[in-house]
Structure formats: structure tokens, C-alpha cells
Design a protein that fits this description.
Blueprint: E1 2-3, E2 9-10, E3 12-16, H1 45-59, E4 63-67, H2 77-85, E5 92-97, H3 102-111, E6 116-120, H4 126-133, H5 138-150, E7 157-161, H6 171-181, E8 184-188, H7 207-214, E9 220-222, E10 234-238, E11 244-248, E12 261-264, E13 269-271, E14 280-281, H8 283-287, H9 292-304, H10 324-327
Helix pairs in contact: 1-2, 1-9, 2-3, 3-5
Length: 329
């Protein structure tokens, strides 16, 4: 088992398939984009499949989520999902995506065994979308959401980041939209993971503020905390249920003490936290001929070095060099 020195067990593996993205969301990267990882540095589909198999079959991972960048840009994404769902024991497999391309890929992914999707949707206003993402693709995201639901990739979860003076007024409308379509909405505090290093705490809409924005229009009843487990979202029943909304307070309500996640970057580095400043290289060892047992031992050693928390409130906190797009959410 992937156990750290604080007794936490990592069973949830987040795998970045690429650092590339077809949007330029302001809380992630600059409008002009970034220098992408060189193709030789990226794990091949076979290398991804091998490392995921090591995690599932030898190290107790029970859930695999493919992320990016934008994972749907990875040409082999359907094959990678199919190879993952064929593992024994079979893990739960999901994808976090911006939804662009999902209208085309939802059915093939479902046929490959994909269990569900998380789709980023920060606004329902086309002009605001263009302002945030620097691309006019709102219609494609909405089409992707509908295709995911039609393909049976349920529950379809929606992730929304609110930014002060930009889209914070849209929170009630986003929730109504998700309730009407049967999607599960999660509001996420903006985190210091932008490539520009321009994040400021005072610009962030906190979990408390999100709830204050919603409460005049909805009755929110906290879910049983015992049901939360290691999930990052605090969940609330909406107007008596059964519909629910989640709030992920990564900054102001950290859940590091119950974290069960470990990350594998697109270039084969193990990261224990989104905000980690250390990485452990599996790619080099694998390409040098390491056996599966040796890779597993390296993975175990990496997780043992996991820190107690992200330390955002510590005066010594340093934002990681890699932005979110190069880490994987």
C-alpha cells in the first residue's frame, strides 16, 4: 500500500496525459500559452499503461483519474482508458476535462469502460467565457456535457472556479443549470497554481463566500460528514435533496489530513501534492530497464516523503514551478 508517514493511504491516482490544452483559462495559463513539454519527454501510451498497472495491481490504487492539460487531446485516450478498465482488480476510471471534444468521444470512452467525467464550466455567459478562456468554445463545452450524460457517464460532475468581479455573480445560475440537467456541481476555490504566479488571496472567492452567495436562493443542508471520507468536497443537499452541491475549499478549508491522492505527471514524475516542490522520477528508471517491482519500490519511497499539508498559510510557502496544466488536477 502507498502509505505515508502520517498513516494516509494513497488509493486515488491522478494521471496527466498531456500538458497541452485548447483553452487559456486565466487561473491556469497566460493567453499566449506556454512552452509544451517536448514529445520525447512525455510518457508513451505503453509507459502510462505499465505504470498504472503497477499502481493498481501492486500498490492498492482503486481509482484512476486521467487529467491534463486537456486529456482528450491525447490521441490514445480511448485506448488508455480501455487498458485501464481491463486491469484486475478493476479500478474506477474517470476523466477531468474541459469538455471540448467530448461530443465526439463520449460514446467511445463509455464503450472503453470509462465510469464518469468531471467537466470544467465556470460560466454560462459566452462573453465571460471568452474573457476567461480566451477562446469562443462555450457551445462545445455544453455539447460535451450533454454527450457525456447521453453516453451514461454519470454522475456528470461540473467544476466551477469563481473569480471576484468576473463570474462570482453567476454562482446561483450555474447551480440552477446543473440542477435542471442532472449534473453535480462543485465550486472550487481558486488555487495558487497559475503559470503567471499572479494569484492573490484577496481575489479568491472563499468557500464561506460561495455559500453566502447561494444561500439567499437555495436551502443548503450539510451532508453527513461521515459520508465525506477522503473526498475533497463538502457536500450540501439543495432544497431538501436529493440534488446536491459541493464546495471544495482547498485553501481556506484544507483536507490534507485525509488526502488519499498521488499524481503522475505527463513526463513520468510522481507528485504527492498539487503544491509539492519535490518530484520522484519514474520515467528515467523505467527507460533504464527497471522492473515492475523496482518501480513499485520507488513509488513507495516517494509517497513515504509526503508532507503533512500544502502549507499555503505558512510564510515559507512557495508556489510550485509547474502550473496546474503541467501537474494534472
Amino acid at each position: 500500500m502507498l502509505v505515508d508517514t502520517f498513516g494516509r493511504v494513497a488509493t486515488d491516482l491522478r494521471v496527466s496525459l498531456t500538458d497541452r490544452c485548447n483553452l487559456r483559462c486565466s487561473y491556469c495559463m497566460p493567453p499566449e500559452g506556454l512552452d509544451w513539454l517536448p514529445k520525447p519527454d512525455l510518457l508513451t501510451a505503453d509507459e502510462i499503461a505499465r505504470l498504472v498497472a503497477v499502481a493498481v495491481e501492486r500498490l492498492g490504487v482503486t481509482e484512476v483519474r486521467y487529467t491534463g492539460g486537456e486529456p482528450l487531446l491525447r490521441r490514445e485516450v480511448v485506448d488508455i482508458v480501455a487498458r485501464t478498465t481491463a486491469l484486475t482488480p478493476r479500478p474506477q476510471v474517470s476523466i477531468t476535462s474541459n469538455g471540448i471534444g467530448l461530443a465526439r468521444l463520449a460514446e467511445p470512452l463509455a464503450a472503453a469502460g470509462l465510469d464518469r467525467v468531471n467537466i470544467s464550466l465556470d460560466t454560462l455567459d459566452r462573453d465571460v467565457f471568452v474573457k476567461l478562456a480566451h477562446r469562443d468554445r462555450l457551445a462545445d463545452v455544453l455539447a460535451g456535457l450533454a454527450a457525456a450524460a447521453a453516453a451514461g457517464l454519470r454522475p456528470v460532475k461540473v467544476n466551477a472556479v469563481l473569480m471576484r468581479g468576473v463570474n462570482d455573480h453567476e454562482a446561483p445560475g450555474l447551480l440552477r443549470f446543473c440542477l435542471e440537467h442532472g449534473y453535480e456541481l462543485r465550486f472550487i476555490e481558486q488555487m495558487p497554481l497559475d503559470a503567471q504566479h499572479g494569484w492573490r488571496r484577496e481575489d479568491m472567492i472563499t468557500a464561506d463566500e460561495i455559500l453566502r452567495i447561494l444561500e439567499p436562493e437555495f436551502t443548503l443542508t450539510p451532508d453527513d460528514p461521515a459520508e465525506r471520507g477522503s473526498a475533497p468536497a463538502e457536500v450540501f443537499e439543495v432544497d431538501g435533496g436529493p440534488a446536491r452541491v459541493g464546495v471544495i475549499g482547498s485553501v481556506t478549508r484544507p483536507f490534507c489530513g485525509s488526502c488519499d491522492r498521488v499524481r503522475l505527471t505527463a513526463d513520468g514524475q510522481i507528485r504527492n501534492c498539487l503544491f509539492a516542490t519535490e518530484e520522484s522520477d519514474l520515467r528515467a528508471a523505467m527507460r533504464a530497464g527497471a522492473s515492475d517491482s523496482e518501480l513499485a519500490e520507488r513509488w513507495l519511497a516517494a509517497v513515504r516523503r509526503k508532507r503533512a499539508g500544502h502549507g499555503i498559510d505558512d510564510p515559507s510557502f512557495l508556489q510550485p514551478v509547474r502550473p496546474m496544466s503541467a501537474i494534472g488536477g
